[in-house]
């Protein structure tokens, strides 16, 4: 029991929690002007500059930078837009590239040394992105089929017997109109929030054990915790990239289903 007490500091350590994500405003009295907003604005500038530079590079033998840009473009164009939306995919490529770039860069702020906070770890940003996607895919569906036609398209699958529509139509409405934006946003938020919270636990806990506790075993545990946090950072990069891909892929699927001739 005494050994366990030596390993667990009981005074002076404040474990990270939800309050760790409640950042102070950059402008006093303006709660909206916070670090999350700054990261989002900077990401837009960086993304614009990157793709602007890439669009001007057309060397026959691409440089490393041009190769990265072309690979990213072809990945979104072919693996997401073309394979998901189909023959009418080209007009959606700019949107999907912009969305993928924005989500990816704002996720990667979580491992950048000067920020260490993914923008989507604040649920409002995840809701905002999902809300934008919801407006886009429902808007294009209404534009193509009309309000009543789109509602029928989204809630009445072809081939379902009439009496079954009493059950199927409400479920389809919930799934396609209500649940989609909720799951899209919460998936992104939960992964960014949980991943960053895990990093905070190991980094802050390791720092406290190493620098602010006396027992040698605590200092050894602190070093191990900090080293393990590096592995978590590597895992975070993978999860952040994967979530950007999933978010963009689901957006393409929603666009495809909203415009398909058959549900």
From TrEMBL:
Kindly report the protein's main subcellular placement as a broad class. membrane
Taxonomically, which superkingdom?
A: Bacteria
Q: Does the keyword Transmembrane apply?
A: yes
Q: How does it sit in the membrane?
A: Multi-pass membrane protein
Q: Where in the cell is it found?
A: Cell membrane; Membrane
TM spans (from-to): 36-54, 92-112, 124-142, 188-210, 216-239
Q: Does the keyword Cell membrane apply?
A: yes
| UniProt xrefs under InterPro entries | ATP_synth_F0_asu, ATP_synth_F0_asu_AS, ATP_synth_F0_asu_bact/mt, F0_ATP_A_sf
Keywords, in A-Z order: ATP synthesis, Cell membrane, CF(0), Hydrogen ion transport, Ion transport, Membrane, Transmembrane, Transmembrane helix, Transport
SUPFAM superfamilies assigned to the protein according to its UniProt record, in alphabetical order: F1F0 ATP synthase subunit A
Which PANTHER family does the protein's record reference?
ATP SYNTHASE SUBUNIT A
Q: Function, please?
A: Key component of the proton channel; it plays a direct role in the translocation of protons across the membrane.
Give the family this protein belongs to, as stated in its UniProt record.
Answer: Belongs to the ATPase A chain family.
- UniProt name for this protein: ATP synthase subunit a
Per the UniProt entry, what species is this protein from, by scientific name?
Microlunatus spumicola
- What is this organism's lineage? Bacteria, Bacillati, Actinomycetota, Actinomycetes, Propionibacteriales
């Amino acid at each position: 029991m005494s050994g366990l007490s030596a390993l667990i500091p009981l005074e002076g350590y404040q474990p990270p929690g939800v309050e760790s994500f409640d950042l102070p405003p950059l402008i006093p009295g303006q709660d909206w002007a916070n670090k999350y907003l700054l990261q989002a604005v900077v990401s837009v500038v960086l993304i614009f500059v990157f793709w602007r530079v890439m669009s001007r590079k057309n060397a026959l033998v691409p440089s490393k930078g041009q190769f990265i840009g072309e690979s990213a473009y072809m990945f979104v164009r072919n693996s997401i837009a073309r394979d998901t939306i189909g023959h009418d995919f080209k007009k959606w490529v700019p949107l999907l590239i912009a969305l993928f770039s924005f989500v990816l860069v704002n996720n990667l702020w979580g491992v950048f040394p000067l920020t260490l906070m993914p923008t989507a770890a604040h649920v409002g940003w995840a809701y905002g992105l999902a809300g934008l996607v919801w407006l886009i895919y429902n808007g294009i569906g209404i534009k193509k089929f009309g309000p009543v036609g789109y509602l029928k398209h989204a809630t009445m699958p072809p081939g379902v017997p009439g009496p079954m529509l009493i059950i199927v139509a409400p479920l389809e409405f919930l799934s396609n109109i209500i649940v989609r934006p909720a799951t899209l946003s919460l998936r992104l938020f939960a992964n960014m929030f949980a991943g960053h919270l895990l990093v905070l636990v190991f980094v802050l806990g390791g720092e406290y054990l190493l620098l602010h506790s006396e027992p040698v075993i605590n200092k050894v545990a602190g070093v191990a915790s900090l080293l393990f946090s590096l592995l978590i950072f590597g895992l975070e990069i993978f999860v952040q990239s994967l979530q950007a891909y999933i978010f963009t892929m689901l957006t393409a699927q929603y666009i495809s289903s909203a415009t398909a001739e058959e549900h």
